[in-house]
């Protein structure tokens, strides 16, 4: 449409704006912009552009407020089409286009939320600005529009045309490419971060937004390929950071539709070889350190704050390769070689465990991916595992905080994983590990029966958590278990951890027994890794909580039962072996346990049983929960009384 065609009759323009047809009001606003340019009145031009934006906002606002009325979408489409005709007209003054480019990208992007056809025209309008205006100016304009959307239009559709335009702007930049791309990338990441948390399973626009974010990556790659030396290396490293962050957003935003993002993950995986990213270096975190140091320069940690999920994206990239050979083939990786390297190098395995923590602790990640991460963890522990490492004390002190955090993250998965996701894996793990555990810890049966349901839900992830514990140096394992127990309020989780501790004590005791052709005889010198006074402190922590009084029952029943079983196991073992490594058989400790732990607990248990003797359904459940506790408690009382009588 030519500018001349917009010059309407004075009579039609004298009508009140509210009563004028939409297209007539649009023409009026565009004429005002054009005449201001011709007159050189830039103050009036600013006012005219502002009125045009207000008009466009009123059109989109009406359509959004009444989404069920097709007439509003039709109005928006007509206005947008007319606007496109105007700015693409060969006769339109470039000065007008420049003036409109300052404000219109944000205004027209709101039309993209109305329908697919509006989205397509919106992209065409923004492309026109990108093609005809200064790339440097458009970079600033588009970033501002991306960074400040109206709350009403905080939807994927709003951002899609802006990202599309930004990807084209990158390619048009001819100077200081790294600096300008580096300025824009955090804005894009912030958009994806917001949308990944706000999208829902029915939101198809989010997937389209992710595809546009991959177009951004393709543009960065195209720009870097034109550069040389250090600038090229820096831009390639920035691309690596961006791809890993987007990988995290893709995995988070898909919710439970894992199969729905195959194409997105494939597209992202194709950048890995160009960015020199490998599965082994990703899962150990080495690639993150390398590309981060290349990019940050003088900005330091301030810039890296824009990439909150780098470790998550790096570890997920490897998990996707583990899920399907299709991804690893695109990357050109041999996961079997990665497994061999991790199995044979304990330090790298510790690094990998620390990276997997981000998957287990990410609350927005689909459970399917957490399950696959658990399978990967178990997979790298298959076969012969090397536990050799140099500089033991230094390495342990450096990696143990990360391993402890990983254990805590897996613990949260055990506590909150939904039944539907892990039942099958829980059953497989139960079938695989139960016989071994029963042999190691004969008394596990009582505890297992009491909280069978919780254990059934937990075993899939518990087996992986035990692998992490087994990979931890023995001299630190006791402290880690104690710390985990003290840092959880879940009764069932405490029960699981106490059973793990009891299993470790049993294995350590077996190692201290010499088995040969002679009669089995316990050694008189014992390792104090697990058999120490800290065990009694743990029992007291449960049976006599720091806040005072006996533990709360039946709410705390799982933990109480495990603590009683642990005390009984230690007392029987120390008595049989005629040792006292934990101090359990000393007269003072026996009297303390009897008077301060066991008798108050017996009073509590019998009192609760008496109160629930009428046996309605709730009372029956309570009594059933207390029965195993009562059995083990009375056995502990008998053992302590017997030891005290012999002590005279």
**Mind summarizing the main beta sheet?**
2 strands, antiparallel
The low-confidence runs, each spanning 5 or more residues with pLDDT under 50, are 1-19, 419-461, 514-526
Q: From the alpha-carbon coordinates, what is the Rg to the nearest angstrom?
A: 34 Å
Mean pLDDT level: 80
Strand tally: 2
Our count of domains comes out at 3
Note the gap between the termini: 110 Å
Instruction: Determine the structural class based on helices, strands and strand pairing.
Output: mainly alpha
Percent helix among the residues? Answer: over 70%
Estimate the strand proportion: under 5%
Give the helix tally. Answer: 31
Assembly status: single chain
The backbone outline, from C-alpha atoms, is elongated
Task: Provide the spatial order of strands within the biggest beta sheet.
Answer: 1-2
Walk me through this protein's architecture.
This protein has three domains: 1-128; 176-333, no CATH class; 421-513 and 528-647, no CATH class. It is mostly helical. It contains 31 helices and two strands. Helix content is 74%, strand content 1%. Helix 4 (70-87) runs parallel beside helix 7 (116-132).
């Amino acid at each position: 449409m030519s500018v001349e065609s917009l010059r309407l009759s004075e009579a039609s323009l004298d009508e009140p704006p509210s009563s004028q047809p939409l297209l007539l009001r649009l023409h009026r606003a565009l004429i005002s912009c054009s005449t201001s340019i011709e007159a050189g009145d830039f103050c009036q031009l600013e006012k005219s552009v502002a009125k045009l934006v207000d008009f466009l906002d009123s059109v989109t606002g009406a359509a959004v407020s009444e989404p069920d009325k097709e007439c509003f979408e039709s109005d928006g489409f007509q206005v947008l089409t007319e606007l496109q005709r105007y700015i693409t007209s060969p006769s339109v003054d470039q000065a007008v286009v420049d003036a409109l480019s300052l404000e219109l990208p944000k205004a027209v992007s709101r039309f993209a939320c109305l329908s697919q056809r509006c989205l397509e025209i919106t992209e065409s309008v923004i492309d026109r600005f990108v093609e005809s205006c200064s790339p440097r100016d458009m970079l600033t304009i588009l970033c501002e529009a991306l960074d400040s959307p109206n709350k009403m239009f905080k939807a994927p559709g709003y951002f899609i045309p802006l990202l599309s335009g930004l990807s084209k702007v990158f390619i048009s930049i001819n100077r200081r490419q790294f600096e300008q791309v580096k300025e824009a990338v955090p804005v894009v990441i912030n958009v994806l971060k917001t949308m990944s948390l706000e999208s829902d399973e029915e939101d198809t626009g989010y997937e389209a937004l992710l595809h546009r974010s991959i177009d951004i990556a393709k543009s960065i790659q195209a720009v870097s390929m034109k550069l040389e030396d250090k600038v090229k290396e820096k831009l390639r490293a920035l691309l690596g950071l961006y791809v890993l962050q987007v990988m995290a957003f893709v995995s988070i935003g898909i919710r439970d539709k894992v199969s729905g993002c195959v194409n997105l993950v494939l597209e992202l995986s194709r950048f890995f070889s160009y960015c020199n990213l490998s599965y082994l270096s990703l899962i150990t975190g080495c690639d993150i350190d390398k590309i981060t140091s290349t990019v940050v320069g003088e900005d330091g940690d301030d810039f890296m704050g824009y990439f909150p999920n780098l470790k998550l994206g790096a570890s997920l990239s490897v998990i996707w390769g583990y899920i399907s050979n299709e991804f690893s083939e695109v990357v050109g990786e041999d996961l079997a070689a990665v497994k061999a390297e991790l199995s044979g190098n304990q330090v790298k395995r510790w690094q990998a465990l620390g990276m997997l923590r981000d998957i287990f602790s990410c609350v927005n990640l689909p459970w399917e991916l957490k399950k696959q991460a658990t399978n990967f963890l178990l997979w790298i522990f298959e076969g012969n595992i090397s536990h050799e490492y140099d500089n033991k004390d230094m390495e342990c002190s450096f990696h143990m905080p990360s391993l402890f955090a990983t254990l805590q993250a897996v613990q949260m998965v055990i506590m909150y994983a939904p039944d539907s996701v892990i039942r099958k894996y829980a059953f497989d793990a139960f079938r695989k590990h139960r016989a071994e555990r029963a042999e190691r810890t004969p008394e596990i049966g009582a505890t297992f029966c009491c909280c069978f349901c919780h254990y059934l839900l937990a075993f899939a992830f518990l087996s992986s958590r035990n692998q992490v514990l087994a990979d931890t140096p023995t001299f630190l394992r006791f402290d880690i278990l104690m710390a985990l127990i003290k840092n959880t309020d879940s009764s069932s989780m405490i029960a699981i951890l106490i059973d793990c501790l009891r299993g470790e004590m049993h294995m350590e005791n077996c190692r201290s027994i010499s088995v040969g052709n002679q009669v089995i005889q316990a050694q008189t010198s014992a390792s104090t890794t697990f058999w120490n006074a800290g065990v009694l402190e743990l029992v007291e922590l449960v049976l006599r909580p720091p806040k005072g009084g006996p533990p709360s029952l039946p709410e705390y029943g799982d933990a109480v039962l495990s603590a009683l079983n642990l005390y009984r196991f230690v007392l029987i073992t120390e008595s049989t072996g005629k040792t006292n490594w934990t101090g359990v058989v000393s007269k003072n400790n026996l009297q303390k346990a009897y008077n301060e732990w066991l008798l108050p607990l017996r009073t509590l248990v019998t009192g609760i049983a008496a109160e629930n003797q009428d046996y309605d359904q709730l009372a029956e459940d309570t009594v059933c929960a207390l029965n195993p506790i009562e059995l083990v408690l009375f056995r502990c009382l008998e053992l302590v009384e017997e030891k005290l009588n012999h002590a005279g």
